[in-house]
Amino acid sequence: MSILQGNIEAIIDGVLPIESDNLNSLHQETMLLTRLVEDLRTLSLAEAGQLRFQPEAVDLKALLQQVIGQYQAQLVSKRTEVILESPEDLPQAWADPDRTAQVIRNLLNNAFNYTPEGGAITIRLASSPRGITVSVIDTGTGIPPEDLPYVFDRFYRVDRSRARSTGGSGLGLAIVKQLVEVQGGRVWVESTSGKGSTFYFDLPSG
Q1: Measured in whole angstroms, how far is the alpha carbon of residue 17 from the centre of its chain?
Q2: pLDDT digits (tens, 9 = 90+) for 16-66
Q3: Which residues does 72 contact at the CB level (< 8 Å), separation at least 6?
Q4: Which residues on adjacent β-strands are paired with residue 122?
Q5: What is the mean pLDDT of the chain?
Q6: In terms of domains, do 76 and 117 share one?
Q7: Same domain as 99, residue 10
Q8: pLDDT over 90 for what percent of the chain?
């Protein structure tokens, strides 16, 4: 807000010229604020039990393929590969497809941000006693042991040096936890510093 306010005041005072670069910068800041407000709204509604869910039988493999397809431009530009592994006899999940797609996007965004250029992200589906487990495995720098208990907390950042423009709102993983748990699933993470991280979530089968 302070950056946005300062730049607008500079334009009003004639200190900052009205040019496309300056206007683009202001537009980026408003987009970041919009995303932050929407993330906070989603999280607050989920925590209050007021977020609408419409569960149905969901083909998680097909849903993942759809979401991964939305990242093709980013994957090409960063030379990052996404590998999808799924057994042929995987049962359908009982979940809200839109909210589950949001969970997958948040985990993919997180993996994409921390995976170096030329790396790979593996998404693995497997049957489990609780239903279906989804694993998102990156080849990033990993998470220090002291940070692991807090990664799903609001605004928590493992890398404090990351800016909002590259590191997101700091709410993505908190939203993942809420959206998974409200659908009867659970979420957890395993990581070793320097060797990447694996984020898991499971959902009941349909």
Answers
A1: 36
A2: 777 777 677 666 667 666 666 777 777 777 777 778 889 999 999 999 999
A3: none
A4: 83, 137
A5: 84
A6: yes
A7: no
A8: 50
Domains: count for the chain: 2
Other CB atoms within 10 Å distance of the CB of residue 121: 25
Domain shared by 95 and 165, yes or no: yes
Tokens of 185: 């699933």
d(CA 123, CA 121): 7
Residues 153 and 85 in one domain: yes
Q: Do 89 and 59 share a domain, yes or no?
A: yes
203 within 8 A of 179, measured Cβ to Cβ: no
The CATH code of the domain that includes 173 is 3.30.565.10
Question: Is-above-0.85 flag for pTM?
Answer: no
* In a domain? residue 49: no
**pLDDT, tens digit, for every residue of 98-157?**
999 999 999 999 998 888 888 899 999 999 988 999 999 999 889 999 999 999 998 887
- Distance CA(19)–CA(82), nearest Å, equals 39
If asked whether residues 122 and 20 sit together in one domain, one would say: no
Contact 136, 199 (CB under 8 A): yes
Task: Give the structural domain span for 156.
Answer: 54-203
Side-chain half-sphere exposure of 116, counting CA atoms within 13 A: 7
